[in-house]
Design a protein that fits this description.
Helices cover about 40% and strands about 10% of the residues. By secondary structure, the chain is an alpha+beta fold. Among the domains are: about 35 residues, no CATH class; about 55 residues. Strand 1 and strand 2 form a beta hairpin. About 10% of the residues have low confidence.
Length: about 140
């Protein structure tokens, strides 16, 4: 009878161990669910820059020469006076550089700001560009 009792305890112990393992596996499966964990990957959508600046749609560019051409177009849009700089934008009164897109920084050499501003606006207009489209900052 003692042997039977011990065998019954052993079989019950195995049963409880098996039940314990199943419970642990269930707990682990609920606490770590790979389906709920999402890996954020970069999207395959085209590169879009802020709306105030031109955007490059990489998916439509097929060659390096097209990319170079598009970069030149963007540069002309953001820095429309760049092709005349630095030769035509430096005078005895001021020197002028782009500090940011559509932002000209003026270093005053002599005279007044008002005189330099009038000369700069006249120069910008002579290039067919609206002076109001360029922000002018005196250094």
């Amino acid at each position: 009878m003692t042997l039977t009792f011990l065998n019954q305890l052993k079989s019950k112990a195995y049963f409880f161990i098996l039940i314990g393992i199943v419970i642990v596996l269930l707990i682990l499966s609920f606490s770590f669910n790979p389906g709920k964990t999402k890996l954020l990957l970069p999207s395959a959508s085209p590169l879009v820059l802020p709306t105030s600046k031109p955007s490059i749609n990489i998916s439509t560019i097929k060659s390096e020469s097209e990319l170079v051409q598009r970069e030149q177009e963007i540069t002309r849009e953001l820095y429309p006076l760049a092709k005349w700089m630095p030769k035509e934008n430096e005078t005895d009164t001021y020197s002028l550089i782009y500090s940011q897109p559509h932002t000209l920084e003026v270093t005053l050499k002599k005279g007044t700001r008002e005189e330099a501003l009038k000369q700069i606006n006249d120069w910008i207009a002579s290039k067919g560009i609206n002076p109001a489209s360029q922000q002018i900052i005196f250094k």
